[in-house]
Amino acid sequence: MSMEAIESVVAFDASLSSLFASYQEYVAMGLAVAGALVRFISDDHDGAVVALLKYKQLHGTWRSSLMMGAHWQFTSVLDMLDFNDLAIAFGTRCIQTLNREAYDKASSIAQCTEGLHQAARLANLAQLLVAAPKTAQGDRLLADMSDLWLRFSDMLGANALTADQSNLLSGLIMIYLDGPAHANLAALRAEIDKTQLPDTAILQKYTTLLDDARARL
User: Which of 85, 80, 104, 94 shows the shortest CA–CA distance to 26?
Assistant: First the structure.
């Protein structure tokens, strides 16, 4: 029976319809994670992080709808059903790789400005990735990233940055100290909203994708 056929059957029962909607939300979460694994394996680390943030967005909606709905009694097992550990593990590796690339660019006179812009984007992505639930791994990620950039000007030496580059670096450090600015979050969330989910056929390859991705961690 197709998903469309199931949806037409359960439409006549409010309780079943609600459960089916939650199931569809869960499938969407799995698709987002599978899409992130494909990108990770392909070394599209930026795309993988955005896909993982799409998962986190979908997870928040799914969890909230269950907790507020008639099936709130299932919430005790929700943590067993999520993909949060995978999101943190692969998201951390992607952001670490991208942050090192941004640092190397920023250390070059010719690419310094581009590197600092990339680093600011990553700082915002990292904040979103580790926002909830809080984990020791996420806290370490932010601490390591902020420490790296706090020492950046000392590494370059006095007067190595232009005034504009110094302002970019100050803004980057403030993201770690104060969190992302509202405008930056709005732009990132708009990007996450536009992220397309892969076809459901990819779920048949999920175990293979996960094994391949774990081998690259």
Answer: 80
Q: What is the pTM of this model?
A: 0.89
- Backbone CA torsion sign across 131, 89, 137, 92: negative
Question: pLDDT of 94-139, one tens digit each?
Answer: 999 999 999 999 999 999 999 999 999 999 999 999 887 788 888 9
Torsion of CA 28, 214, 105, 183, to 10 degrees: 20
Which amino acid is it at 85?
A: D
For 71-96, the pLDDT digits (tens) are 556 666 777 889 999 999 999 999 99
Q: Among candidates 86, 87, 124, which has minimal Cα distance to 102?
A: 124
Q: Read off the pLDDT of residues 45-72 as tens digits, 9 standing for 90 and up.
A: 999 999 999 999 999 998 888 777 655 5
Q: Which residues contact 75 (CB under 8 A, 6 or more apart)?
A: 63, 66, 67
Report how far residue 177's alpha carbon sits from residue 171's, in angstroms, rounded to the nearest whole number: 10
Q: Name all contacts of 164-167 with Cβ < 8 Å and 24+ positions apart.
A: 164/113, 165/112, 165/113, 165/116
